[in-house]
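In this section we walk through a basic example: taking a raw amino acid sequence and producing a predicted 3D structure, encoded as discrete structure tokens. The instruction is simple. Fold the sequence below.
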Amino acid sequence: MLVGYDPTWPEQFERIAQEIRTLGDADWTIEHIGSTAIPGMRAKPIIDLAVRIRDLDEFESHIPALQASGWRRGSAVRTHPVMILEADGVRSAIAHFFVEGEWDAVHQRLLRDWLRSHPDDADRYSHAKCDAVAAAARGTSTYNAAKTPVIQEIVDRARAAQGLPSVPVYDK
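The resulting token sequence is shown next.
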């Protein structure tokens, strides 16, 4: 499930981001998020992207082009639209769409930035991910639920550092 850091992940992100801009809006801001955006971190080999959109209507207008290129809607995430790219049943990318007004407080972006600048927390999170894989294998928790307490703690610190209040990070 988790693999060692792949130095081609940033290049993969750039290729996927360009494809999304071509299918959507060339002016969309797209950033690499998730564990594949943290140099040296073990991760599922799935590229996560944060896409800043003006509003949900704009997103909806680009769904047909995204779907025609292989992206599909779908995720248990409740707080924002998500599209998934799969080939032969293997997930390769997940695009999270956030409206402009939420962009600066998106916890996935805050977590990425915090982990890039706080190696001790990055190491702690990496270990929590391994523990989450083990918990999921035992059937005692899902992978995402098992790592959420560590994510919540780190995101709370990152938000506090920017004067933002705590918000629940688990949105499934």
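Looking at the output, two observations stand out. The helical segments are 9-23, 56-68, 107-117, 119-138, 143-161. The longest strand covers residues 90-99. In the next section we compare this with other chains.
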